[in-house]
Recover the amino acids of this structure.
C-alpha cells in the first residue's frame, strides 16, 4: 500500500481507477504507458498549436483527457478537457494563453510517475506468517534485494495482495483469521496463481498437506526450520518463474 499512497497523496483516484482496470498490475502497466507517451504528445500539441491546427489539437487533448481520467488524474483531466473544448471552438487565443498551464500539468504527472516507478524498482515480496521470528529472519535474509511487506494473518495478506504489485509471496499455511489455504483460494479465484509465484512456508511436511498446496499451483515449499541456503533456493525458483515467461 505504501507505493500507492504516493499517488493517493497527490490526489490520484487510484481506488476508482482499480474498479475500471481490475487489478494493480494492469493499472501499473497502463500507467507506465501513459507516462511514456506524455512527452511525445506534448510535443505534438506544441506542433498543432504553432500550426494553428485546432482540429488535431482538440483530438489529441481529448485522448490525453480520457487517459488521465481512466487512470485517476481527475484534476489534470479537467485541464486537458478545457483545451479539447477550446480546440473544437477554434479558440487559439485561449490555447496560446493557457498552453503553459497544460505543459506544467503534463510535467507534473511525469515527475510524479517517475518517482512512483522509481520507488517500485525494488521488487516487492509479501511475507505472511504469524511468527515474528520467521518474519524477521526472512526479512533480514532478503531485504537488501527486495522491498518487504509483512502480514501476520490471512486477512492482512489479502489486503496487501489487493493493493500492491507483488513480485512474490512467501505464505505460511497455519495463520489466524484466515489460514494460508484460504489465501491460496483467494489467489486462485482472482486468477493470480499464474501471475505471482507463491512459496509455502510450513512446518507440516506431510504428503497430504504438500500435495494439497501444490494442487493450488504453488511454486515451492519452504519447510520449517529452514536455513539461508533454503531461502536462496526458493529465490532462484522465483527468478526462474519469471524467466520461463520470457523464453
Amino acid at each position: 500500500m505504501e507505493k500507492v499512497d504516493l499517488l493517493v497523496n497527490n490526489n490520484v483516484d487510484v481506488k476508482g481507477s482499480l474498479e475500471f482496470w481490475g487489478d494493480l498490475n494492469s493499472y501499473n502497466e497502463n500507467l507506465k504507458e501513459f507516462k511514456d507517451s506524455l512527452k511525445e504528445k506534448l510535443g505534438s500539441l506544441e506542433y498543432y498549436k504553432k500550426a494553428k491546427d485546432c482540429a488535431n489539437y482538440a483530438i489529441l487533448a481529448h485522448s490525453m483527457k480520457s487517459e488521465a481520467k481512466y487512470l485517476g488524474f481527475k484534476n489534470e483531466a479537467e485541464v486537458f478537457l478545457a483545451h479539447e473544448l477550446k480546440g473544437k471552438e477554434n479558440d487559439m487565443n485561449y490555447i496560446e494563453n493557457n498552453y503553459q498551464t497544460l505543459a506544467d500539468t503534463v510535467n507534473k504527472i511525469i515527475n510524479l510517475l517517475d518517482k512512483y516507478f522509481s520507488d517500485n524498482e525494488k521488487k516487492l515480496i509479501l511475507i505472511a506468517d504469524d511468527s515474528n521470528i520467521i518474519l524477521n529472519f526472512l526479512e533480514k535474509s532478503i531485504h537488501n534485494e527486495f522491498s518487504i511487506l509483512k502480514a501476520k494473518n490471512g486477512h492482512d495478506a489479502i489486503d496487501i495482495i489487493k493493493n500492491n504489485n507483488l513480485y512474490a509471496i512467501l505464505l505460511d499455511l497455519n495463520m489466524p483469521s484466515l489460514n494460508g489455504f484460504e489465501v491460496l483460494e483467494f489467489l486462485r479465484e482472482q486468477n493470480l496463481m499464474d501471475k505471482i509465484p507463491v512459496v509455502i512456508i510450513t512446518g507440516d511436511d506431510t504428503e497430504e498437506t504438500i500435495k494439497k498446496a501444490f494442487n493450488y499451483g504453488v511454486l515451492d515449499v519452504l519447510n520449517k526450520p529452514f536455513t539461508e541456503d533454503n531461502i536462496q533456493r526458493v529465490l532462484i525458483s522465483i527468478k526462474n518463474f519469471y524467466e520461463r515467461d520470457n523464453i
Summary: DSSP finds eleven helices and five strands in the chain. The longest helix spans residues 92-119. The CA atoms of residues 6 and 245 lie 30 Å apart. The chain has two domains: 2-119, 124-244.
